[in-house]
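Priority: medium. Attachment 1 of 2:
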């Protein structure tokens, strides 16, 4: 039986300066709040998107990495598990291709893959997976940590569904999505990580974001 998961994303596109006085060239993605305030005697509505929460995980080298350690970079994230028999290998190969396409921007980008099955995916197992896929890039972490917090982080922060499902292959279900997060911690796009055309679009959006919002060519 094939199960399809869908997530409705609320997207607001700012093509001009918004309340934080920043020009945005990509949408902001996720659930948002509308906050009203009085400015010069007039009621003004402000759209508030949640920022990424702080987190910390062990990476494939058994090093504890904190989200604050990766500040100053944009993030590309996915959620996977190394024993996944279906989409995860395809996602990893597309992420690997994307890392090669953006090699010139290596100091501006942090790739991260969160394991949703940390009981199996120890740092040493993630290291084996890293080597098996012949990944050589230095700006890609594979993370393992608290399972419940990881699932929650995916759904509520990165806008990527991940969770246990006894009926799914491998016992876990997740969307094949790559999330693009800006330097301030806002999700700016979600892309199908098994579709080369979507990944090509992500590469273009990475460059657009860096060029027009951070003056990086």
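Attachment 2 of 2:
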């Amino acid at each position: 039986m094939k199960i399809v998961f869908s997530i409705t994303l609320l997207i607001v596109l700012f093509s001009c300066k918004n309340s934080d006085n920043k020009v945005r060239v990509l949408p902001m993605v996720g659930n948002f709040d509308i906050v009203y305030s009085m400015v010069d005697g007039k009621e003004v509505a402000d759209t508030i998107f949640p920022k990424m929460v702080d987190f910390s995980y062990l990476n494939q080298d058994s090093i504890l990495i904190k989200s604050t350690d990766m500040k100053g970079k944009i993030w590309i994230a996915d959620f996977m598990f190394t024993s996944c028999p279906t989409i995860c290998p395809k996602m990893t190969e597309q992420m690997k291709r994307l890392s090669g396409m953006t090699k010139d921007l290596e100091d501006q980008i942090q790739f991260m893959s969160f394991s949703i099955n940390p009981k199996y995916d120890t740092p040493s197992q993630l290291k084996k997976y890293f080597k098996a896929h012949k990944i050589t890039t230095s700006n890609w972490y594979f993370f393992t940590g608290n399972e419940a917090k990881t699932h929650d982080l995916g759904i509520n922060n990165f806008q990527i569904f991940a969770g246990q499902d006894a009926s799914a292959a491998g016992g876990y279900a997740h969307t094949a999505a790559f999330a693009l997060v800006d330097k301030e911690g806002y999700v700016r796009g979600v892309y199908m990580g098994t579709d080369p055309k979507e990944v090509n679009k992500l590469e273009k959006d990475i460059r657009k974001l860096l060029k027009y919002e951070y003056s990086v060519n």
